[in-house]
Each structure stands twice: as structure tokens, then as C-alpha cells.
Specification:
about 230 residues; alpha+beta; Heat Shock Protein 90; 2 domains; five-stranded mixed sheet; 5 strands; about 50% helix
């Protein structure tokens, strides 16, 4: 009986890996390519609307697949504990780097996120912090989870380091490419601003419609306490 359970679990893990490598990656590439295509269709509203529809359908399929991954792998989602996961990520970042790190959760941020959304937002924050650690020379970084507008939420990671080259003609690093891909998967966009030797801001914006209104929480400010190195 135990052998059968192990065999079934191995098959599920293999299936999840194959679906991710062969299907999910292809769908992600399609989303990014459609986004690039939209950029070349300025003023062609009918084409843009059709592409938006294709992207929405692709995201739906991709989100269903990611939900299936959780089930096949037997993983617990982070949707209900997203803020706690981010707080722990930032605390560990401070512990490893001694860079002062703060988290704020502002009015309108949802108490719960769908697992697929939570994972993509978490990875954006994780990669942004990795860039701060490796490239910024920063003394402090702030992560804010907030409402961007009536229809959108946003995640902002801002440091006080040396800044980065934001020339779009420059070859992007894989970390930046990955953040932008995840923002597209969320139906949003990624903005990177540099302040001439006074830091960098990474801003990921995505539609609030992905989250039920009943899940919005009251205003609060959460601050990660400083940890002794």
C-alpha cells in the first residue's frame, strides 16, 4: 500500500513537471509575445481589443494549470498567508544582508489572494530584493503592498542605492525579464524607475478584479522589526 502511494505521488510530480515545462512555459511565452505585439499596434483599437481577449483567455488557462500544479504536488498555497510570507522574506533578507528592510500594507490590500496570484507577486518581490542585494549598494529598502487606483493593486520595492540603467535598448537581465513576465501573467505591467544615484523603484501593477471585494482589509501599517546581524 505504501509503495502504491509513493508511486502515485511520483507520477503526480512527474506530470506536474511536464505540464509546467511543456505547457505553462509556452503559455507564458505567448502572453509576453502578445504584449510585445500590442506595443506595435498603436491606434488600432480593434486589434488591441482582440489581443486583450486572447491574453485574458490565455491567463485563464494558465491560472487553471497553476492551480492543478498545487494539487498534483500536494503544495499548500500562500494565498491566505501572503503578507506573513512576505514579512518573513523581508526579515530573512535583512538578516542575510544587514540592509534595513521595511514592509507596509496599505489601505485596500486584500486579506487573501488566489494562490496563483500570490505566487507571482511573491516572486516579483523576491527578485526585486535579489537585485537590491546584488546591484544597488543600498542601505535601506521598502516594500509596499497597496491600492494603486480604484481598479488596480500595486507592489512597490524601493531602495536608496546607486540606481540602475533604465535604457530600454539595454539587454535586460534574466531577473528583470522574469519580473516583467510575471507582471504580464497577472494582467498588469512592471515599471522600473531610477533616481540618478538616489535609488531605484520597481512597481508592479495588476488588476484588482482578480481579487474578490469582500477580501479587502482595513488600513494598517506593518513594519518588519530590525534584526541584529
Amino acid at each position: 500500500m505504501a509503495r502504491r502511494v509513493v508511486l502515485e505521488q511520483n507520477i503526480k510530480q512527474l506530470l506536474a513537471r511536464e505540464l509546467h515545462d511543456r505547457v505553462a512555459q509556452t503559455l507564458t511565452s505567448m502572453l509576453v509575445e502578445l504584449e510585445n505585439f500590442k506595443a506595435s499596434q498603436v491606434g488600432r483599437q480593434s486589434v488591441l481589443l482582440e489581443v486583450d481577449g486572447l491574453q485574458d483567455s490565455t491567463r485563464d488557462v494558465l491560472n487553471e494549470l497553476r492551480g492543478l500544479f498545487y494539487e498534483l504536488r500536494g503544495e499548500e498555497g500562500m494565498g491566505d498567508s501572503f503578507v506573513d510570507k512576505v514579512r518573513l522574506l523581508i526579515a530573512r533578507f535583512h538578516e542575510k544582508t544587514s540592509i534595513e528592510a521595511h514592509l507596509s500594507v496599505q489601505r485596500g490590500w486584500p486579506a487573501r489572494l488566489r494562490p496563483q496570484i500570490a505566487l507571482n507577486v511573491y516572486r516579483i518581490i523576491e527578485e526585486a530584493l535579489a537585485n537590491v542585494r546584488m546591484h544597488s549598494g543600498a542601505n535601506a529598502v521598502r516594500v509596499a503592498l497597496k491600492r494603486y487606483s480604484l481598479s488596480h493593486l500595486a507592489v512597490e520595492v524601493r531602495d536608496d542605492g546607486r540606481g540602475v540603467d533604465t535604457d530600454e535598448s539595454r539587454l535586460l537581465g534574466m531577473g528583470t525579464v522574469g519580473m516583467r513576465e510575471r507582471a504580464v501573467i497577472l494582467g498588469g505591467k512592471l515599471q522600473i524607475e531610477s533616481f540618478g544615484g538616489h535609488g531605484t523603484k520597481v512597481l508592479a501593477i495588476f488588476p484588482k478584479e482578480l481579487v474578490p471585494i469582500k477580501d479587502l482589509i482595513s488600513p494598517q501599517e506593518l513594519l518588519v522589526p530590525e534584526i541584529s546581524a
